Amino acid sequence: MSDDKNLNQLTVSERFQLARGKYEDVSTTTDRQDSLEYQQCLQDLIIEFELILQIVQSLALFSDNERLSELTTAYIPYLNLWFYLSQLYSKLQIKLGAASKGQVSLEFKSGNLKLAKSYAIEFLTNLQNYGILDHDQSQRLKLIDKGEEIIMSAQLKRQEKIDNYKKEQQLHHQLAVLTALKHDLNERFEEETLKAIYIDQLKFHILKAFDSIGLITVELEVLEKRPPLGASTDQSTVDNRISSSSADATGFTTRVEQLPQKKQISDLISKQGKILQPFTITSKSQLRNRVFGTGQVLPSMTVEEYLDYELANGKMMKEEVKDVKQDSDYESDEDDEAQLEKRRWDDWKDENPKGAGNMKANIG
Predict the structure, then answer these.
(1) How does pLDDT run across 321-332, given as a tens digit for each residue?
(2) In angstroms, rounded to a whole number, what is the distance separating the alpha carbons of residues 94 and 108?
(3) How far apart are CA 347 and CA 226, in angstroms?
(4) What is the DSSP track for 169-233?
(5) Are the C-beta atoms of 113 and 89 separated by less than 8 Å?
(6) Which one of 113, 216, 329, 353 has the fewest CB atoms closer than 10 angstroms to its CB?
């Protein structure tokens, strides 16, 4: 009760500074995140940040029609409230108000992750209204709002991670002044310098928020496919019953690691065509052939049958067969005329020897 009285006597700015300090402690602690003590700290901090957020929204400190240059410098840190709540909800494994019962369970994880994702998207949307997001980040936020998957090649993903890591390291180095001078910032720096520091902090949290959204999406998919509570016990009972009934003297058993069950196509392939689980297309006829057949794949047709099939389907062209008889007759006719022409020349040469036509000049 004394702590509540002390908090009520603090201003909103002082409560925000105190809550942010506790957030840094929770983020860097080495305690187990599934412990009840850690979860209660998260719950108390979430309640405090949500109370500060309600006060900020009631005061209308931010507007969609306002530019970043018009925003008061002292109000800029409060834009991080949605980011802090997103990070805290992503680690929460209890239901708010149920910590006194010690209910730390993954049963509440899915709902908390959805709240964390909504806070992260709202944080990015607020910063987009002030023009702090760059073009690529704005396009990525639009895809997230539509619920579409961001499809990138492995090379682009790797390059994006490298670029984001470099930006995070650079911004983290620039923001070291916030850790060193928590309460003396207004006295040490001018307003423009202080505003630039706060904007760098927002840019640093933008990178963290996009990473968190990706991790939350993957974790939600895993939790949705997680078997319900009690299913593992029933499954083990069935497996034991099968193993005891199928054992024989030779040691042969039909027990499998996982009982085959009918799966929907959505469990294997996503709407975007991404393969979620490896699968093999089989049919009863193929299984029957493996049991009663030869056990291996044999040729189903001869070479001649295959060639006939290819010719029938137009995949091969028949060799053009010419009319041999007609061509041979044509060639034989040409040969006959040539032979006759040669014979005529030979006969003419015999009848007209060389010099026979020179009757006047060489007679003597």
Answers:
(1) 555 555 555 566
(2) 6
(3) 109
(4) HHHHHHTHHHHH-SS-HHHHS-HHHHHHHHHHHHHHHHHHHHHHHHHHHHHHHHHHTSPPTTHHH
(5) yes
(6) 353
